[in-house]
Amino acid sequence: MTLFPEMIESGFQTSITGRAMEKGLLSLNTVNIRDFSKDLKHKKVDDYTYGGGAGLLMKADPVVDSFHSIEEKIGHKPRCIYLTPQGRTFTQEMAVDFAKEEELVFLCGHYEGIDERALDRVTTDWVSIGDYVLTGGELPAMVMMDAISRLVPGVLHNSESAETESFENGLLEYPQYTRPEVYDGSAVPKILLSGDHAKVDAYRHVQSLIRTRKYRPDLFETYVKEHPDEKIPPEVFEE
Ligand code: 6GU
Question: What is the predicted pLDDT for the residue at 239?
Answer without folding.
Answer: 86
